[in-house]
Specification:
With 213 residues, the chain is an alpha+beta fold. The chain has 6 helices and 7 strands. The chain has a 7-stranded antiparallel β-sheet, sandwiched between helices. A hairpin with a 2-residue loop joins strand 6 and strand 7.
Amino acid sequence: MTGIEGDKTVRQALVLAAAAGVVACLSGCADRANDLDTYYGAAAQEADRASTAPSAAPPSPSAPRGDADPAGQVTAAQLTDADVAEEGVTPALPTPPASACIDAIPSGATPPGSMTWQYPSGSRLSQEVNAYTDRPASQVLTELGCPGEELTVDVPVGADSARGWCADTECTVVLARGPLLSALHVVASTPERAAEAAQRLAPVTAKALQRQQ
């Protein structure tokens, strides 16, 4: 074999080897999914899953507190037998209106809560509680006018404001806190005893007003 023929044979062998490598590469690529196709296919599937997944339900509103209910507020602020036990009174049937002052109090958002007790001497103690949703109870108290002379009442802890009136042997102390107005009425044998009892029970009435919260 001449040198020229040998070179020609080598070149042919190299061409055939290169062609075989290209064919092998194409065959391998044909068996493997294209990287871009795989990426976009996975992204599309993820988007489909996101669009079909159920959306999270919105949080349910918090349950209203019991003290937001005017009727519940009135009940909580009413004096109990235990609250007035030191007075030595016993429950008695109400005799509406308990007083001209209590009768002058504007109606609240719900029927008022009323309680009546009787002293061994025959004197009487009454309470009426009203709740307002359209204005603060202090505003109602400021506008309230009762017959008789005004009674000096210190604002006890638990109340926003306080006022009092006495007529003959009857005294009424009215306390306001938030939406609640609590009126305490005492009928005694003398004006002095009525005033003393009303003033003495004002802090007890204010403490009951705090039970609304």
